[in-house]
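Cross-check.
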Amino acid sequence: MMRKWPRRVRAPFLPVRRPTSLAERAFITFERVIKGGLFACSMCGNCLLQETAFICPLRCPKGLRNGPCGSGSLEHCCVDPDRPCAWCLIYWRAEQMGRLDRLLEVQAPLDWNQVGHDTWHQLIRLAWQRGLFAPRYLSDREAWLQQVEQLFYDLRQPDWWQGDDAYHPPHSDQPVSRLQAALQRGEFVVTAEIAPPLSASGESVQRTADSLRPFITAGNITDNPMATARTSSLACSLLLLQHSMEPVLQVTARDHNRLSLQSKVLGASLLGVRNVLCLTGDPPMDGPGAVGALPFDLDAVQIVWILRKMRDQGIFLDGRPLKEPPQLFLGATGTPSAPDLGMEARRLHKKINAGVQFIQTQLVYDLDVFEDWLEALDKRDLLSKAYILAGIGPMRSVRAAHYLAENVPGVRVPTDILKRMEQASDPREEGVQIALELIERLKEMPGVSGGVHLMAMGWESVVPLLVKEAGLMSRFSD
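Predicted model, tokenized:
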């Protein structure tokens, strides 16, 4: 099968410091020419080609080193529709090469001390120091290969990161939030999405909290959705706490570097925010006006890895000890309607290994596809390691139904549901009825070990009706 390969997004990085020797300058020039021609190398100095089927992950416009983001395909990148998703190509080629398991390793963010420099010079110098050119290694191929694998691992996994492909459960099973406690008790929980206001007033958030409090376990505060600036998700989370509603704080890689991430989450824990949903984020070009910066400093997997280590090991990313670790219940997102369920399952496997405890899904309208997704997760023994909150969104018009079906990545609206909306005398009422039917079926699915996440899309007043009509009110009587 012929594949269209994505071009390099940016010119090669310049060194962040001047090369100190003639040998280093020679290696930089040599690597820039050779790897630039063969792999469209960006000279990041943090090479992962060995692990990514020899396709540079920095061909991804977002710069994700633990991709994909979940919105691309072999035909289209979510940032640039004229190019394929670089990470979908990595998964495709890794499958051809029998190297898919290598993609489960959690890779570090860029070390900017290395950016603009070569990797081969580091590789050869370290190999020489370890004696890998000595006759005793050259005569023992198996031992030599083991040492080479360790060499590559040490180069891509610095001491301040030490990523791996193992599952990292939380150190404590004591719940840190009401949401976590309810899930551990086996309750069918309901969370709801709350969009921050487009103003410095918190009145709308307060009204929403007061109206939804009796009906949901937690309110999920979005973080600049669709790359549009809104009131801080942390500020809105504090408002929910002040109005006796437990928040789920969203944190996007798009809007944070590694410093602001750690600072924000420590501040959130200090204020009493315990639930954190980690996302990569919509690309900057989805928003209005001038486009924001690419690539991102972090991705969703790296965010989870950093926060888990802060919580369970009590250390900052740079290794400094934390006097008081944050208390966190960590979540991430999943896409049941992903075109490649195998890739989607591996993507979630990596997130759960990194420390994710609950998965909040994209909108679900096709329950047959959703069951296939659950089966793909179950084959990898993931359903026992993370709670699933299925995304449900009532449609209030035929136009909204078609928009979701045609314009929102990761959402599949079956033809029969579209027809029901088109033929309904009251599309709003039909949208509510469809949502109730979906919730009823989800309540009976054994793989949904969490509950539902209601995304009302500006129609928050419908949430109490859905909860009451679905027979879930008794679950919030306490």
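The chain has two domains: 22-104+112-156, 178-476. The first strand starts at residue 189 and ends at 194. Passed to J.P. for a second look.
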